[in-house]
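User: Could you check the structure of this?
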Amino acid sequence: MSKKVVAVGDNCVDIYYTLNQFYPTGNAVDFAINLSQLGCEIALVSIKGNDIFGKSIENVLNKSGIDLSHFHKGDKQSAMAQMNLINGDRVHEQFFGNVLADFKLTEDDIEFIKKFDIVYSERWARIGRYIKDIKLQNQIWIHDFSKRLDETVNEGVLPYLDYAFYSYPQKDSYIEEFIKTKQQKTNNGVVIAMLGEDGSLAYDGSKYIHQKANKCNVVNTVGAGDSYIAGFTKGLSEEKGLPECMKMGTEVATKIIQIFNPYQLQTCN
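Assistant: Sure, the predicted structure tokens are below.
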């Protein structure tokens, strides 16, 4: 039986002012939607804005069958990224945290999270405030540090993690030493670097495992890491080994980077 998963973290919209369109997204949202599409039972703990964007994000999540019983409504605008499209590439110009600045877990949220087999979190969850009191011995904890390799707050989270993910542009000696060092700070866990065209590299405390990227026509790399972690987590939920989980992550990410917008861009009104 597949394990139950909960994602704790952000939701936002990417707004393309030049196209008059927006795109519901966010690390936790992308992870949850991709994992749900793989057939996993998943819930999202987050806070949405009090505007049309918040409602749009909620609609997308509902269509994906995600448990939104702990998807709270805040009293500020949705988090949003100002985006542009330049020569076919998506460019982040500016980010506004808005309602995410108020994201705090309630006691009910904490008890809810304890019911799940696998817990995913990312930056905006600021999970370091809670992880010591939440994590149960039999839970698998995953955190996506993304490109923030050496933020001070990372050190307070690593000791509780079973799987830590980072994003880095290529496979080199720096990232090899980096993930080895970070692995020693985890809960006897695994550290994985997602390396774009160089695939992904894991260190489990005794050896490195390298998974090559699949060759394909890359349309959009935004969300590649989130979808990789979703595929990887699908493997964990089925108790697959590390190489197979990495392969599953690669397969899902390969599909996503060939699509400009997997959730369909919506027109701003």
